[in-house]
Amino acid sequence: MQGEGRLDVNGGTKWSRLLTTDSPLPSSSSSSNLEHVDNDIGDIGEAGNMGMESLDYEVVESLAYREDQAQRGMWRHVSYITLKWTFSLLIGVGTGLSAFFINISVENFSGWKFAATFAVMRHSYILGFLLYVLFNGALVFSSVYIVTQFAPAAAGSGIPEIKAYLNGIDTPGILLFRTLVGKILGSIGSVGGGLALGKEGPLVHTGACIASVLGQGGSTNYNVKWRWLRRFKNDRDRRDLVTCGCAAGVAAAFRSPVGGVLFALEEVTSWWRSQLLWRVFFTSAVVAVVVRTAMRWCGNGNCGHFGSGGFIIWDISGGQDDYSFYELLPMAMLGAIGGLLGALFNQLTIFLSSWRRNVLHKKGNRVKIMEACLVSLITSVLSFGLPLMTKCTPCPNPEKYPDVVCPRPSGQYGNYVNFNCHSESHYNDLATIFFNTQDDAIRNLFSTNTPREYNSYTLITFLVTFFLLALVTYGTAVPSGQFVPGIMIGATYGRLVGILVVNASNRDSVDEGTYALLGAASFLGGSMRMTVSLCVIMVEITNNLKLLPLIMLVLLISKAVGDAFNAGFYEEQVQLRGLPVLDSRPKRFMRNMSAKYTIGTKKVIQFSRISKVGHIVSVLRSNNHNGFPVIDWLHNGETVVIGLILRSYLIVLLQAKADFQLTPIPGDTRGRITFRYDVRDFAKPVSSKGVSIHDINISPAEMEMYIDLEPFVNPTPYIVPEDMSLTKVYNLFRQLGLRHICVVPRPSRVLGVITRQDLLPEVLEERAMVEEAISSRGRYEAPPYEEL
Amino acid sequence: MQGEGRLDVNGGTKWSRLLTTDSPLPSSSSSSNLEHVDNDIGDIGEAGNMGMESLDYEVVESLAYREDQAQRGMWRHVSYITLKWTFSLLIGVGTGLSAFFINISVENFSGWKFAATFAVMRHSYILGFLLYVLFNGALVFSSVYIVTQFAPAAAGSGIPEIKAYLNGIDTPGILLFRTLVGKILGSIGSVGGGLALGKEGPLVHTGACIASVLGQGGSTNYNVKWRWLRRFKNDRDRRDLVTCGCAAGVAAAFRSPVGGVLFALEEVTSWWRSQLLWRVFFTSAVVAVVVRTAMRWCGNGNCGHFGSGGFIIWDISGGQDDYSFYELLPMAMLGAIGGLLGALFNQLTIFLSSWRRNVLHKKGNRVKIMEACLVSLITSVLSFGLPLMTKCTPCPNPEKYPDVVCPRPSGQYGNYVNFNCHSESHYNDLATIFFNTQDDAIRNLFSTNTPREYNSYTLITFLVTFFLLALVTYGTAVPSGQFVPGIMIGATYGRLVGILVVNASNRDSVDEGTYALLGAASFLGGSMRMTVSLCVIMVEITNNLKLLPLIMLVLLISKAVGDAFNAGFYEEQVQLRGLPVLDSRPKRFMRNMSAKYTIGTKKVIQFSRISKVGHIVSVLRSNNHNGFPVIDWLHNGETVVIGLILRSYLIVLLQAKADFQLTPIPGDTRGRITFRYDVRDFAKPVSSKGVSIHDINISPAEMEMYIDLEPFVNPTPYIVPEDMSLTKVYNLFRQLGLRHICVVPRPSRVLGVITRQDLLPEVLEERAMVEEAISSRGRYEAPPYEEL
């Protein structure tokens, strides 16, 4: 009765007015780059073509949501919590096992490769070389083939995309099951194939993918899904899971659980809560246990060539742990070099990557495959050829260094590689670091108590060659991480500086391996610009806490020097990909702009509460906004904003057609929708575009019907007055992880002021108890705009 | 002209209407506990009497502020950044030196005490006992005397108050210079006096005080201040400094820089930015270097008794670093015991502390002093008497344990104390942990490769006694930390479990010292409920990374068990003190409440733009709100909210009297106030009440004058529509660190929707460039409500 009565009062004028004023906008309005187009990220460079989507970390408190919440009893709450922790456990186990699988595969492929090459080389150098090249080429080809044909989103490091995801931008394909498979297999191929890249960045992506696949309840494409897992089908819960996955990835890659937590915190996340810390920590701990258990199992010889390691732990606990005052100078110098070289590396990767994106990779997959194979060929030729041209060095005096095994026994792993040496007591210092797996090469560079193992010229040759190789390799269409190349580059010049210090001081306490470690830290600091997490990772992988202050010093300097030139590696890559990541702080110039400024003169596109289906369809087709204010009319003819409706909700409604009605009469819709929609029906699947408006068929008769939007709007979007400075708007948007903020006129009155006291749970509870006895007035029910 | 014209139109009615409607409210309106009183925190239990103040982390974008910002050139920006980093450096140096000073004093006092006692005991046990009691009593008395008479805010741990400060509540006196001095001197007395408490918590408070004093540019009371340092006189910058100070405190206390950063992040801060991480890290690194340098200097024998340590580093790198599967059971048991005992400890401290606060300590300082002296006496009697009643144990076989020095040489530090043993080859195991400095006792409990050093009965005796002592001691009016007592309690039962495991397994690889360490971790985890930070601190102080997974496991269990019973130690203390800290997440029941609910039926107290001085004074006197909406009238007679004015601003205006005017004519005030007020004049000094309205004298003639509030309002406070759910309001309030939120009616129209794209700096910059050529329209100028 109420609805009809209302229609009697102002129905006729109201709905007719609505249908004329709300005519579809001309479609030309979304053409210019500077217009207010709410496609969220569509107009930033290339991004529009890639179909990125903003994520919505705000809860849409629609009627559907509130009914869902009301149904949630204690049991659902408990099962939700249990599920969260179970997922954390599973992410840890999954990431740990993936890391183990990748490592065991890489080590075995590399092992077979080097064993076969050394065996053939005894007969013919040329055949050995061919075998080496073909083996590498085959691995790299399989990697690039899988990536280009099957999982294009698996190329590269993946960390920039994950960073963007956790900032609120979903890149298509980045968190799918196929990407996970492509990443794991691709990593094995590219790292096993000896390219100048690492498997650590991809492991972070792998962890994030595992988290996302779990959170989705399986893969939609492969029809592996469980209904009860769909509890996590909202962006906020998924964000938390992906954060756990990132930490797990780092924890697995470096066997560094605390480092993993800090990495997630410092480098990839945009929002953080202390409750999350606890869960992320748990996930990392699980990874540590899984990896440890798996390695124990391998210790019994079950894993082929893996026996000797693979998981990077470069124990340098035998190294230098004290330093004299004058050594601070070369160490500071290391920091400066790291900053300079790191910034240079970042800058050159930007040029190369943007050339690749804009020119080379536009030519199709065939070019990508050829490029990767070419890089593999160059790498093989250099890593085989350069050591071949290097003179061998006599082994160190066994009496002075009784622990040194020189040269290492054929077919085994270790230091002092005998490559192309004609004497049995010689070793090839360039081959020791170049003709080796990367983990072993780093171990050899970090090796302590091996003074003068490397000739300065060898190190310089390797530094230049490897720097260029790493540069060229990053950006090919294979999964690639930057940690290991960074460590190798840094360790090389670190060892160089160490040689200088040893020569200058003639003291035994100076250890070249320690300088190599500091060099590695400095290059990573200069390139990636991480601080605490990198510091902890370096300490954890070298297992030497006493080096902490030195690593800190080096990192402080290298980051400061690097920051003078450009942004960090991942930030640059984020920008290059056109990922519209919002920094945690607004820019200074935003102080002088107001919210009104961003709106400009554009008319806002809005719906009225009861809208014609045809009108909705034409509006949705004519623009690509994702949120539309919904208005209604009061009895006195004034308008009132009843909320914001999302495009995705409208599309679900248009698809279901269940709420179409013949007359524009607002009914009392409460309680009705529960049986028709689940709140999760409105959730968009991760990393893929939802249904488009153009995919929906609506008959002409249906076009003439009406729909009451009230139950589906978010009744209370965050609002700001039009003259609020952009700094404050930015903070609101960024801190709360919003997708839309409504700009409203300056309010005409203030109903009250909320302070800290009003929000204290104990005060509210007490008050609720007092009032419960008296009445239920003021409780949160339906949007009370009708009573205004 | 414009102002006058406006007055002609609607001035007469407008101002007269204002003066009648805005009559002062009856003073009875602020009497009930459940009314909407905006004294922020005044009505929460005892808090009101303590005069806590809310902090304002939001920038008040008043005209004064904007003019100040406009003047800031590049140079001021650079000097601001430089100052920030200089402060971080100084906080690090200051905290490091303070920690060093406390440690050196404690070690020397303890050294003299034990040396003198042992010397006298050779002649007479009774004289030795008297000397011991008097020495302890004198130190504790000096501590409690300093604290009660001079710096009452220095009592206790200080961490709960710092936590509250960083959440937005300023407790009076907590961050003053006198508190700093009281804390340092008090710590020396209470720790040197052998009480069952630690110096680590107080060091965190010390670091925070140093940060705050620096940030204030010296102490106001002692007239040590520099004008140029006043740049930091705002709550946000001070918050960042205090965060650095906390991290520095932990870094200094445990020589654990990474642990310090994590502690600040996990335990004390409520807001966190990644830029801050970098600065906090820097501060911690500085502390590490300062402490190291100072200890080197002491290594040359410059520091008396300090030579043997003092800074807690319990190196147990010789301990167990592998474990068999079945050992996970006793380790999990340790976790469970830690959770149970920790929760029990928390619960008992709550009872004791609340009794102290409500009964005992209300009786005045004399009682507090007597209480502390009594506790000291009991501690002395027990720590002297119990070992006296213990039988001595023969030293371990020197052939089997060649490294063991047993008993330790007289007058030196170490393990195996000969106390009341009649044979030279015996030691007293209870005295080894009880009649010793706490650092040495912990070192002895953690000592590796000393199986069966302690008898089970000895450990049980010590555990029970020390648990009770720690319980009674916490809450006396001396600075007291809970880390060291927690470690001692945990290490004792850890060692007990270790003995059980050794007996059950008969394997040499099981090390009691490692179990002691895990026990310590479990008790701290069960009591304080920290995770990552505690884990890193434990690893850093024991210098053994390999124990990381075990410590993680134990912590996970102990925290989970403890959480089943009560909240963490600091959270409980925060609640007990009535500090209205807002948790990072809203409670579940807030979903069902709306913003309107918090307002209730109370009428909002507001000012009009031009208000009578007398009216302002009477409103300020009649209530204790801190923020008042300010309204104005449009040409058509409608009202518009022009912003929110803070009580502190009004008081400054009333005190200065410079803006009083005879007629209610709004003038064009822009540019005028610059010369009269500095933006910093409006800032409240930290940890003390500002000027009260009752302290201001205004003549009757002045009472009749007017004041134009427009230049001083915050024109754009954050607003929420009345029916927004409290969950969302809470998030807004908490995430942005607000002090006031204005509740407004549901808006009548939306001017536009802001999305991610609208806030991207590059988009805004591009647009600004385009528009700059055309016009300056839409830029942020004065509040444009006149043009509405």
Question: What is the element layout, followed by pairings?
Answer:
Two copies of one chain form a homodimer.
Chain A: H1 2-21, H2 47-50, E1 53-54, H3 63-71, H4 74-121, H5 125-150, H6 159-167, E2 169-170, H7 177-192, H8 200-215, H9 235-254, H10 257-268, H11 274-302, H12 328-358, H13 365-388, E3 393-394, E4 426-427, H14 429-434, H15 438-446, H16 456-473, H17 483-505, H18 512-528, H19 532-542, H20 548-563, H21 569-576, H22 595-599, E5 607-608, E6 610-612, H23 613-622, E7 627-633, E8 639-646, H24 647-656, E9 660-661, H25 700-703, E10 706-708, E11 719-721, H26 726-736, E12 741-744, E13 752-754, H27 756-759, H28 761-774
Parallel strand pairs in A: 5-7, 11-12
Antiparallel strand pairs in A: 1-2, 3-4, 6-10, 7-8, 9-10
Transmembrane segments (chains A, B): 81-104, 124-147, 241-264, 276-295, 328-349, 457-477, 483-503, 515-541
Pfam family, one (chains A, B): Voltage_CLC
Keywords (chains A, B): CBS domain, Chloride, Chloride channel, Ion channel, Ion transport, Membrane, Repeat, Transmembrane, Transmembrane helix, Transport, Voltage-gated channel
